[in-house]
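User: Just a sanity check before I run the rest of the batch. Below are the structure tokens for the first item. I only need the designed sequence back.
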């Protein structure tokens, strides 16, 4: 049976079932019940049901049974619709909860795997930072396939302890892929090359820990992934790689440790989309297989998410995934077949459908049974209503026999109460009208009512006082007669209201209503007044006298303008206001100059915007405002940010602003840039400490020279001490001139060898010495020159000394002193003199370098090497690099 046939049969059956000759609810006068039921049906019933009732049942002419049945349907159908919607939402919620469970599981697995990889990386980094490993010989100097008995054997033992600790073999690999240590082998076995040297190169190039993709050993077929950590030498260069080959079974056990359900599973894929591990029994079958491209595309540019795709087994699956922080490109995903998730939806919906059909059938039957009980008392009420509407004699409703239905009995009692209340309501309306008239006359706002000819029909005392005329002199008169001076201003407003029917609101009317009257300012609104037919017959007026308010507003605006000019005139201080939440409410020119933010961008920004990231993380902005709120004012200094990201030192004063009730309204903030002042104070303090430190060092060295210089000959003792202290003084002057930041080597050498001008040549690149190396190098050059002047090339007129320097292979300094043209020399024997001991002490102990002497017959040669940290990254000033003789 179609929907149309079913509706027709019901419409034919219901009227026929009603008793003949009985009045129905639809026949009541006025049609109020019919309209109410029609409105109820229009709100409660769905569109299809409303159309069926209108076209077939004709409820407005049907009996009570049809109405009750429609009422039951109107109650049940929306309830069933709501129940269906609730069930659907519940089912959808269960499905969403299941998907969210997958997402939470993927997130939890990613945390566990990140923690596992992080533990391995941390252990390897601790091993890589071992002093014995960082200070060891360059990897290229070790013979391949052998473990020396020294430091490498100790590292091998350490590596085996680490491997036992983390449960994974550890190997130390050179850049060419040759393993120096492999804990998977016995100590006496020779390590071979790693199976994937490209990964070693990647770790060295990146200079940070990396996790490889899936690696298959070509010899054994064993599948692993490797964690690589760079090993740095003393200069900070990555020269080797520590690798830990992790078996896949370890990751599989980690995934299988959490129960996900019978159908769900978890897996890990590397950056190439290959399966690393899987939580279920298909781990061995799936390892190494590549995910479908459509599934891999979901991971691109996404840290986490959910999607639906086809698995490697060809099953439609819902996935949740999460990327790994410790292994970029790796992804943990948890999947469950879509069929398993959707299976939970069918049962509740089928149960709801069966229950809904049963409820409709039962409700319709009960509605038909109750209709017979209601019809008889309803007829008596119907007769009473007809008599009441026709104003005929009718019995008092209170004397009608009681009705068996409680609602109908309440209706009968209501009729009796309504008739008595009509008289009381009329009296109350009269009293209310009198009260309204009293309010209308006494309200301080001007009110009036005008007809279409703009004549006053009524007005109150407030409007009469505005016009300075009694109320009686307004009634029946035109506005132009009452207020001739104001009529030209207000006439357009009246015409607009009368012609368009739209109100005109809040129009300012200035001036006196008549000559010699006091000028005032009024805010007036005009609205149309309509009759029962909707035609405009007049205009209502509401007028406010705003003279005093506008004068006060003008005075306030002038005062605020003067204050604004004062604030804008301050350019060396940032003056701003903050609201109670710490947002910028005002911004002066000084704030724009100090902080760099234009007013348009600064207004509304949080106060914390101007703090450094570390201060915001520490909660300093909120702490400062809380301190100002607690104590009334806050004063302090700190680093702040300009708009371009640069920092400056600010002296800040913040004052809390409260109203009379003590409620916080905002803050007044004054700040000043004190960066230069603070920098000058710090520089003075730094220089004072440096001068103190240098002076103490100079005095200590001078005292040592006095104590250690041989005193057999007083004149020679005085000359030696004087020369060495003079060398220290010259170095001290060079340091002071350069602000104690070091000195350029060439300038220092020229100063120390100036006494031998014409016999000394200098050659070498532009190099700068660190502050701690300047005085030792100056004394070193002084001792070499003194020795050459006494016994070497500088003791003769034709002798020459060549001083050359350059960087060595490790980035340090190599300094060569070569003498030619002096007397024949021979290596000294026996006990060394004080000069030789002083030179050795300066190079070995103070500079941390090495010195060697070559006593050639044509002249002594000396080579000095200093470590890299005795040099400056940037020399103070450029100089020529070729050999330059010191001018005579």
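Assistant: Here's the designed sequence for the first item:
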């Amino acid at each position: 049976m179609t929907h149309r046939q079913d509706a027709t049969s019901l419409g034919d059956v219901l009227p026929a079932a009603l008793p003949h000759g009985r009045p129905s609810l639809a026949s009541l006068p006025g049609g109020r019940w019919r309209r109410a039921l029609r409105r109820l049906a229009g709100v409660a019933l769905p569109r299809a049901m409303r159309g069926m009732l209108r076209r077939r049942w004709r409820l407005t002419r049907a009996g009570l049974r049809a109405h009750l049945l429609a009422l039951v349907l109107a109650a049940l159908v929306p309830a069933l619709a709501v129940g269906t919607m609730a069930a659907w939402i519940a089912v959808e919620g269960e499905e969403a909860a299941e998907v969210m469970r997958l997402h939470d599981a993927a997130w939890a697995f990613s945390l566990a795997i990140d923690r596992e990889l992080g533990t391995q990386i941390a252990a390897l980094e601790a091993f890589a930072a071992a002093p014995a490993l960082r200070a060891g010989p360059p990897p290229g100097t070790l013979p391949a396939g052998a473990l020396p008995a020294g430091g490498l054997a100790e590292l091998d033992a350490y590596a085996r302890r680490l491997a036992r600790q983390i449960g994974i073999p550890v190997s130390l690999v050179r850049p060419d892929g040759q393993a120096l240590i492999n804990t998977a082998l016995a100590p006496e076995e020779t390590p071979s090359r790693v199976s994937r040297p490209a990964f070693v190169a990647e770790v060295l190039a990146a200079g940070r820990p990396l996790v490889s993709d899936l690696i298959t050993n070509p010899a054994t077929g064993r599948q692993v992934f490797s964690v690589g950590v760079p090993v740095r030498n003393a200069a900070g260069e990555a020269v080797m790689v520590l690798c830990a080959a992790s078996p896949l079974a370890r990751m599989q056990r980690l995934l299988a440790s959490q129960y996900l359900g019978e159908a769900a599973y978890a897996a890990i894929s590397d950056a190439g989309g290959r399966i690393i591990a899987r939580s279920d029994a298909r781990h061995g079958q799936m390892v190494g297989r590549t995910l479908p491209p459509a599934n891999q595309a979901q991971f691109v540019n996404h840290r986490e998410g959910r999607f639906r795709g086809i698995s490697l087994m060809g099953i439609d699956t819902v996935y949740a995934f999460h990327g790994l922080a410790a292994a970029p490109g790796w992804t943990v995903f948890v999947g469950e077949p879509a069929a398993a998730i959707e299976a939970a939806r069918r049962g509740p919906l089928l149960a709801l459908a069966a229950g809904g059909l049963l409820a409709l059938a039962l409700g319709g039957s009960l509605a038909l049974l109750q209709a017979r009980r209601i019809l008889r008392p309803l007829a008596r009420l119907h007769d009473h209503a007809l008599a009441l509407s026709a104003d005929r004699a009718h019995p008092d409703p209170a004397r009608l026999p009681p009705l068996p239905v409680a609602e109908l009995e309440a209706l009968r009692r209501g009729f009796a109460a309504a008739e008595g209340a009509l008289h009381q309501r009329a009296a109350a309306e009269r009293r209310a009208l009198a009260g309204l008239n009293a309010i209308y006359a006494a309200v301080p706002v001007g009110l009036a009512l005008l007809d279409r000819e703009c004549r006053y029909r009524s007005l109150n005392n407030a409007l009469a006082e505005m016009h300075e005329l009694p109320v009686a002199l307004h009634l029946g008169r035109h506005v132009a007669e009452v207020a001739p001076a104001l009529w030209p201003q207000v006439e357009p407003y009246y015409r607009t209201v009368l012609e368009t029917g739209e109100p005109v609101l809040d129009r300012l009317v200035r001036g006196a209503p008549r000559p010699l009257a006091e000028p005032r300012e009024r805010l007036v609104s005009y609205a149309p007044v309509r009759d029962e037919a909707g035609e405009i017959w007049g205009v209502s007026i509401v007028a406010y006298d705003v003279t005093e308010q506008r004068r006060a507003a003008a005075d306030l605006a002038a005062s605020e303008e003067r204050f604004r000019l004062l604030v804008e005139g301050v350019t060396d201080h940032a003056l701003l206001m903050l609201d109670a939440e710490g947002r910028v409410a005002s911004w002066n020119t000084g704030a724009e100059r100090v902080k760099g933010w234009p007013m348009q961008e600064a207004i509304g920004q949080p106060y914390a915007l101007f703090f450094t990231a570390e201060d915001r993380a520490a909660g300093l902005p909120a702490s400062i405002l809380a301190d100002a709120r607690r104590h009334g004012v806050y004063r302090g200094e700190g680093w702040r940010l300009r708009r371009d990201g640069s920092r400056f030192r600010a002296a800040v004063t913040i004052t809390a602003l409260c109203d009379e009730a003590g409620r916080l309204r905002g803050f007044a903030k004054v700040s000043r840039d004190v960066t230069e002042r603070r920098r000058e104070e710090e520089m003075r303090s730094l220089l004072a400490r440096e001068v103190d430190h240098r002076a103490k060092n100079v005095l200590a060295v001078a005292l040592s020279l006095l104590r250690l210089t041989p005193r057999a000959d007083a004149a020679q003792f005085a000359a030696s001490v004087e020369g060495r202290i003079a060398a220290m003084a010259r170095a001290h002057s060079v340091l002071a001139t350069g602000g104690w930041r070091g000195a350029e080597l060439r300038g220092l050498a020229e100063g120390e060898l100036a006494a031998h001008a014409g016999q000394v040549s200098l050659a070498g690149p532009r190099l700068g010495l660190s502050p701690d190396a300047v005085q030792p190098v100056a004394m070193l050059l002084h001792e070499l020159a003194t020795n050459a002047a006494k016994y070497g090339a500088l003791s003769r007129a034709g002798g020459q000394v060549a001083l050359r320097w350059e960087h060595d292979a490790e980035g340090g300094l190599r300094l060569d002193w070569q003498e030619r043209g002096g007397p024949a020399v021979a290596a000294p024997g026996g006990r060394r003199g004080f000069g030789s001991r002083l030179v050795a002490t300066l190079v070995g102990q103070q500079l941390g370098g090495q010195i060697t002497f070559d006593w050639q017959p044509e002249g002594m040669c000396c080579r000095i090497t200093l470590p890299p940290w005795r040099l400056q990254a940037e020399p103070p000033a450029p100089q020529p690099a070729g050999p330059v003789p010191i001018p005579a």
